[in-house]
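Entry 14. Ran structure prediction on the chain below.
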Amino acid sequence: MGEEELTLHEAADVLGVHYMTAYRYVRLGLLHATKVGGTWRVTGTDLDAFRSGAGTDAGTGVAAAKKGSRRRAPWAERLEQRLIAGDSQGAWNVIEAALAAGADLDDLYVGVLSPALRSIGTRWADGELDISVEHRASGIAMRLIGRLGPRFARRGRTRGVVVVGGPAGERHSLPIAILADLVRQAGWEVSDLGADVPAASFAHAVATSGDVVAVGVSVSIAEHLDAARAGITAVREAAPSVFVVVGGLAVRDREHAIALGAHDFAADGSHFLTLLDDLGSRLPDERDADVLNDVETGQ
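Output, structure tokens:
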């Protein structure tokens, strides 16, 4: 059908479904649509993609979610569409559909929410999206995390305390909130400092948060690397036995992380959890500088 634009009513007629069913497809991110002057518009290209199965998890659409299909669907892309549209309820509908289709909680964060947010950030940086759209999407994402967060809590004795935060000047709190929930789900107690944490405050949090096992520092913007270095230095001076890991878009690799003063580098949340698991297996009862040196040098 090419680039012909249809109203949602017309698209529903083409699909042979009720208007509300087509509307549900849009709110779930299954059918791409744009709101123009209060009316949903669907291009012929997007409608063709939906009919061929490209936008509906091999053509099964909502039915697949209801049946709990585990086939990979483009949930991140669907969520990105709803976030950009400023559609809070539609974004939550995508989350619920992904869960119904078999996604785990960590899958939602690592494979759905994080990629959607990275894409939106890239599109803003490239001038494709206005900053207002990016901010609005971030606000919706934070509310999604607020609704999902309690599901990550685990009962029982924790494995120790992990402090996470962003250095002074860093404004990106979403990656930190996501990381905090993932770490909490893995059985650790989390002290989430959020973004824009002065170096002295990082050290104070480590000194006052109980049995701190590790610190995770997230840096998204390169201009905040010096502040990250200061925070890492303050933590290591205040608590030499605490394992410090740095990651985020501004940190290139392990060599870069070590140059910033950290013990190690985490490419993403899953990598950070792997490092914590390794540390936990090395330090079942107590921590000391010799063991941390072994971790740092890879011995």
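The radius of gyration is 22 Å. Will compare against last week's run tomorrow.
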